[in-house]
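Lab channel / #folding
Pinned by the channel admin:
"Please post every new chain as: sequence first, then the structure tokens as a reply. Keep commentary short and put observations after the output so the thread stays searchable."

First post following the new format, from NK:
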Amino acid sequence: MVKDENTALKNEFAREAAPWKFKGDMSDYAQLGNMLIDINTLEQVSNHWGNRPLVPVKNLPGRFWAIDSNYELGVSPFGAYLARDVHTNDPKRTSLTPLAATAAKTWVAADLARYVSLKDGDLWGGSIDWSGNTVTPAKNLTQIGLLNNLEPITWCDQHFYFFRPQATDKPYLRINTENGNLLEMAGNKVLSRGVQGSPDGCFLFKDDNGRMIYSAKGGVSQLHVMDLRRGDTFDMDATFDIRNYTGKLKSDPLPDHIRVRFWIDRNLFWTPIGWYDLGQRNRITPTDFPEVVSDLPYFIRIHNKGFRDIPGGRYLDIVYQGYPSQDAVMNKRPLIKRYRIDRLQGTATALPIEPVTQPGHGHITWVDENRYVYARWKGGLNDIGTWLYDVTTGQSKKLSRFFADERQIRAENRNFGNEEQAAWSTRPYASGLYLALADKNRIIFSSTRGKIQELVSVSLDGKELARKAVPDGSRTQNAQFRLRRLPSHNINLPFKQRTKLYKKSLNRRIQNSTEQHTNINQ
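Reply from TO:
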């Protein structure tokens, strides 16, 4: 009996400690709460996996990066991680934390290869050796002993920007993290406290006094941007009128902040009134899409919670609200329309609004650029079930008589389309009802029949592939209980040989930025 128990324990430990050795590849597995399941059979293959979404680290076998708490480059200081967030885990919750013993204020660069600390009035810096779980001894970069109480702003490439409260004329300080060179800088309409920044730390931006101004008298509001790689500033139009009529009178201006809701790539972010492309230095609004304007010629705006990015990064699923006529404006009868918009081509394709999808998108899961699945919970027996809509044909087809139960297990699909974006996205997963597996030509969801909670796997061709009861230990409505796929790609942590290529990569980025800037001016 003891021998059998020991064998079982050894087998369980082997499964828990080395899941990458399971039959198949990492794309064959998904996390379900604290379990690991085979997405082909829906069988449980591992328990006590952990609720946090983990990404395998390619060059550290057996180590996993916890992306829900560590990929946070969209908060100050921009372009850097806090040292306490830089670590990896293995399935047994063993942490790899090279900076665990660092007591000073410490930040890690976006490439995870370098770190800096503020200590004894100077900036100290070194590199990280992930393979050895160590850091190189910190080197004093500034050697002046006067840099006390610095407030970090952003880390762009080799330059770290700080605010120095003690200074008066030039309170902003740029420090080269490679050689320690210092540059004192005066503040301007962008370089100021409370500024916003891009995930890579290389764009800073701020609107007019922190407010936007909507005006019927031709008033203009601007977004002021500083390109830290080029060292110049520029302005972008931020004026947008979304006022309605009260009887025959137009309402007062509605000032509001420009706030980033989602970064689509390192230079492009979305707000409730449009997109700002800092790299190309232009703004995209609903009125830039002719199809949208023809349907809603009056007071177009993006509906609250009416935005979803589509896999691939080219298209966006947008719900707009506006008025089809002047009479509708006067009588306050807005119309809601939904489109798949192509940011690159500037075109919009109308999409149907199912009762469950209006006005938000919580019950829609995009499988790829052209197809999404959704649930119909009401209607006749031929209506209830899971449906697939194809944008290219404009047709829906029923995939299954079963549908996802919104009160039970929620699915989470990755909100980014490539490895680079995974490394800084502040919203790595989008919660929904269906787990989309385009490469496997299937979807997985949770459905309830009476008191039985099941996982259902359905082919996008409409064939039921598997249906199994959810294991007893996972039958819960806990908010942390999610069905999420293990990523098909791995995250690379930098080794010394990678950091040697840093300057070459930096030079290429600067050259590309210069060429884009030249093209814009031309």
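NK: The chain has seven helices and 42 strands.
TO: also worth noting, The longest helix spans residues 502-521.
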